[in-house]
Amino acid sequence: MRKLLTFTPAALLLLTVSGAVHAADANLTIKGTILPAACTPSISNGGVIDYGSIDSNSLNVNKVTNLQTMPLTISIACTSPIKVGFKVADNRPGTHNETGPRFGLNTDNSGNNIGYYFLAPEQESFRIDGEAGRLASVNGATYQEASIIGPNGLTYTASLISKPSGPITELPFATNMIFDVGIRTTIYPKNNLDLANEINLDGSATLSVVYL
Questions:
Q1: Per its UniProt record, what InterPro entries does this chain match (predicted)?
Q2: CA–CA separation, 128 vs 134, rounded Å?
Q3: For the chain, what is the mean pLDDT?
């Protein structure tokens, strides 16, 4: 009994000391979130081009008819400077007869392709954070001035220039990019179309930001 009485306080003492050591610990936690730059593309007029009513008699019988070039402005605004570009996807793939970078206008009631369009950038309008620039297309590590914007899998981005005829230089970090484009639309010969019914031009494309 005495041995038991002697041992018990010692055990209690050890437990007390151990508890005191743990009570002296303090944890430090570092938290935070580094947010990447976010960019938002926009297209003037809600991205809508409306040719209104087109008289079928104004269409060429045996050759294509080029409609009036329509202007739009494309801009990309970012929350902080970043190297950024964009791609454009055709939401009506397979509805034109061309081999080049063109967008389709869908089909008529008989399944005939109506025509095509493409975006022609106006290089002199290009501004990168207020500075003159140009639109370049990227194919791997190769950059070249873009004369046409199409659904060709290429990334289109900004490049600073020292003068209009200067070489394409290293891509800049930028917050804002803005430029004008001309929408050039072509209708196929009307002898290839089903004109017994109304034909609705139904082009659709999606512009997506690409972070470089």
A1: Adhesion_dom_fimbrial_sf (IPR036937), DUF1120 (IPR010546)
A2: 9
A3: 84
